[in-house]
Write a structure and sequence with these properties.
2 domains, alpha/beta, 4-stranded parallel β-sheet, 3-stranded mixed β-sheet
């Protein structure tokens, strides 16, 4: 039995399942397996909140269209949650606790007893208070229970024909703001616009525009750093970033690495 068969079989004992779908490859594979096993008894839910980039929502919609799974999009504003906005090292815990409450509401309406997410084994090696919140609220992680690493997820997502199989990992826009600096709508907008501009100017696949109280720090993967060497383009990009609210801009020579902002900044 292959790993994907094990994942599909994980759902065989369920009657109906709610899949928390982010727009990334992990939850996409879970949604695929759930639909393969349960058909119309599997439902995907995406939270379109203030820290979700538009391209993530578009990706989630595309995934559901490919799979054929029913898709529910919910909207709420986590900026109304003061525990989230203050942005300490428990921000993700409060975010996922609030998400869990909405997921549980939907599961009751849809008469669904099981809620699942796309957490994989590699995620457990990092500081992820959001995973703790989901687990405490009864959300299950089939990829963990069936032994999927990120590499496994991408391999099988490609095998089953999911177009997001090689999509770069992403996280909510608030993760670009250092702990200790408030999450505001203004910051989220300029971060999202900034990342769109970097992609448009240089064609990079993976980018983070970190916001240090208005100072933009651009991170791209090391293998794509050479794309930013065009000084004329870079000058134009800096000009555009200042137009949307950044006070100054610099490129991080170390490049992109997940979890770089997991430190308190006063």
């Amino acid at each position: 039995m292959t790993k994907i068969d094990e994942l599909i079989n994980w759902f065989s004992g369920q009657s109906k399942v709610l899949v928390a779908l982010s727009g990334g490859v992990d939850s996409a594979l879970v949604a695929y397996a759930a639909h393969k096993s349960l058909g119309n008894s599997a439902v995907a839910v995406t939270a379109d909140y203030k820290t979700l980039a538009q391209e993530e929502l578009e990706s989630a919609e595309k995934i559901c269209s490919e799979i054929g799974i029913k898709h529910i999009v919910i909207q709420y504003n986590e900026l109304e949650n003061p525990e989230f906005v203050k942005n300490d090292n428990t921000r993700c815990f409060h975010c996922r606790t609030e998400l869990s409450e909405y997921l549980n509401e939907i599961s009751k309406k849809e008469n669904i007893s099981t809620i699942v997410d796309g957490t994989n084994l590699d995620d457990l090696r990092e500081y992820r208070p959001g995973i703790k919140a989901l687990k405490e609220n009864g959300v299950k992680s089939p990829l963990v229970e069936t032994g999927f690493t990120k590499e496994d997820v991408r391999e099988y997502a490609q095998k089953v024909g999911l177009s997001v199989y090689d999509r770069p990992s992403n996280s909510c826009l608030a993760s670009r703001i250092p702990w200790g600096q408030e999450v505001t709508a203004e910051r989220l907008v300029r971060i999202e616009m900034g990342e769109i501009l970097v992609k448009q100017f240089f064609g990079v696949r993976q980018v983070r525009v970190r916001d240090f109280n208005g100072v933009a720090k651009i991170e791209v993967e090391q293998k794509e750093m050479s794309l930013l060497s065009d000084q004329t383009k870079l000058s134009k990009l800096v000009e555009r970033l200042k137009q949307i609210g950044f006070t100054s801009v610099f490129v991080d020579p170390e490049g992109y690495r997940p979890g770089k902002l997991n430190v308190i900044v006063d």
